[in-house]
Amino acid sequence: MKFRKLTIENFKSFQFATEIRFPMDEDGRSIFLIGGMNGAGKTSIMEAINFCLYGAKVDEIFRNINRREKARGNVLVSFELVMEMDDLSELVVKRSWSAGVTEDPKPRDLTERLVVVRDGKRVSVQNREIWQDFIRSMIPPGITQFFFFDGEKIQAIAADDHSEVRLKSSLEAALGIQYINRLATDILYIKNEERKGFVEISDEDLDFKQSELKKERSKLTRRQKEREQVQQELSEFKDQLEHARQRFSAAFHTEPETRETLQANEKKRIQASNRLAQVESEIRTLCEKMLPFAITGRLFGPMRQQIEAERESAGSEAIKENAAFLAKKIVRVVEEPEPIYRETLSNEKMAELERRIFRLLREGDSKGEVLRILNLSDRDAARVLNKMESLENGDVFLLKPLLEEKRELASQVRKLEGLSQTGMMSESETQLFEQLNAEIESCSTQIGRKSEQLRLLEEELLGLEHRITAIEMEIERLYERHHVSRERAEFIQECDAIAGVLNQFVVRLRKNKVHLLQEKTFEMYHLLSSRSGLIKDIIIDDKTYEIRISDRNGHEIKKSGLSAGEKEVFAVSLLWGLAQTSQLKLPIVIDTPLSRLDSTHRDNIVNNYFPNAGEQVIILSTDTEIDKNYYRTLKIFLNGAGRLVFDQQRELTTFQEGYFWEN
What are the φ/ψ torsions at residue 554 (nearest 5 degrees)? Predict the structure, then answer.
């Protein structure tokens, strides 16, 4: 993997989007030098790479936002890293933080956004954690300290006289041993969980369940035989029914289904005949008691009309007889107590009005004279009308509807007698008809009973099958939980075996890699140290990680006895050895590595370490570390150089092509 381009925006003194490109040789190797004075932003480049790859806490991002942009309300921070993968594909990782349009934003308002682009196609980031894990798998954060380091890291390793703990964690991170240990821990956890599943199950428990299962299976067998018997009986009854139906059709030339119709018609005929007899009895009873009234009932209507006419005629006669008296009374009503008209009538006009009213009353109704036949008083007329109403509401007038019902019933009985065949059959045919009907009805009844019995048996069989299945599952669970369960025992043994193999693998891996680390560290130390001729070997214990340095005579040289420069050279050699041992092809990013070294060690670092540190090396240096002389020495290895220019008044860092002394 190699870095092709880094973009930093709105981070510390990188106010505007600053793009740094890393050119490559034709063979894919690259050494790129970036110069910058103290405070110009060299450390910001190291931080930008780490933040872009692995993210950061929002408090740290918020604290390092460019002050001028933050004052303007712009809290967008963005990093973009373009990488060329080992398979020559291009991977772009862009990570940004923004608070949107929040007024007076706080660190908690920042929202992190990750975008991954592979070969020009944006990768779905619905689950950001998946792609974060992908990035971590390509560039494990536990070992980036061997590839991205600065002078402080070198000094910390150099000053650590007891570096066993640091070396162990570093080497195991480089080898991925922590993942193997995690796997072994997970296997141990699974094994313990499997052991929890073991519950003491006695043989009596298993025997009881087996006995219960045997009983249910025996019951199932009996019910199945019973079902077969019922099915056979049902089939026989169906055959008998079909035989009886065929005999019926052959004997009476009609389908057996018509027997139900015949029976229904016969039932209706009997019901109609019984009702007819009842109606005839009611008619005779009415005729015996109320027949005379039924005959005169036709005269009730005319009698009512005559009574009403005679009543009206009597009223008119009364008015005519009292016409003179009524005329005078009407005239007085018009005049007294107060005239109802404006003009007072004279005596002549009053007399004329009285004569006119008299004539009107004497003429009476224009209708003709009514012949008085009954000549009843009002009291007698009321009694007659009341009696007629009582007779009309009595039973005597039920005779007519009864007679109509009798006619309908007689017609219905004749019709039903015509539909009935039994009346036209001989005695032997009638007996056969009844026999076949009885046989068909009996078979149909038995078929219904056997079908219901079969249905109940099917339900019971289904319940027994479910019960047997449940008992079998219980027995299976008992066996699974039993201590002697072969599968569980084998699985637990396999867990132990795998854990043992992993432990052996870690031991052998650590031993082999520690030996390789020894070789690589000594190889680089031999190139960089001014005392390399005095050092015979560097030995690292593969169990304790204790480092021993021996001279040509085999005497141990204490690390604490080395000079400060030698310690830093040893630290650089150890970092290089760890990077080589990890066998990951990652870029080496070094920030101010020469600040505390003397000229001899600087010469060795520039001539021997930088050209061999890795396939891609990015050096961040001040003008005093890589000065003009070192720059001339290093230039033949460089693929490019640039410098960070810091405008102190504007607090702004920009990137320019060319090192300090290049135009």
Answer: 85, 0
Distances (CA, A) of 401 to 283, 390, 391, 397: 10, 18, 16, 8
Three-state SS for 590-639 is EECCCCCCCHHHHHHHHHHHHHHCCCEEEEEECCCCCCHHHHHHHHCCCC
User: What does the block give as tokens for 518?
Assistant: 């020894």
What's the number of domains the chain is made of?
Answer: 2
What is the distance between the alpha carbons of residues 69 and 12, in angstroms, rounded to a whole number? 10
pLDDT digits (tens, 9 = 90+) for 20-76: 999 988 888 899 999 999 889 999 999 999 999 999 999 999 999 999 998 888 899
Phi, psi of 485 (to 5 degrees): -60, 120
Establish if 300 belongs to a structural domain.
yes
Does residue 87 belong to any structural domain of this protein?
Answer: no
- Parallel, antiparallel, or unpaired for β 640-647 and 652-657? antiparallel
DSSP notation for 57-94:
-HHHHHHTB-HHHHHTT---EEEEEEEE-TTS-EEEEE
How confident is the model over 573-617, as pLDDT tens digits?
Answer: 888 888 888 777 888 898 876 766 777 778 888 888 888 888 899
Domain boundary among 459, 482, 505: 482
Q: Are 476 and 491 found together in one domain? A: no
Burial class (CB in 10 A: 0-12, 13-18, 19+), 135: buried
CATH number for the domain harbouring residue 203: 1.10.287
Asked whether the beta carbons of 591 and 43 are under 8 A apart, the reply is yes
pTM here is: 0.54
State both tokens at 190. Answer: 């699974």
Is there a single domain that holds both residue 299 and residue 435?
A: yes
Q: Would you call 369 exposed, middle or buried from its count of C-beta atoms within 10 A (0-12, 13-18, 19+)?
A: exposed
* Residue the block writes with tokens 């396999």: 494
C-alpha 53/C-alpha 95 separation (Å) is 8
State which H helix or E strand residue 114 sits in: strand 111-118
Within 8 A by CB and 6+ apart from 24, the residues are: 2, 4, 30, 84, 616, 639
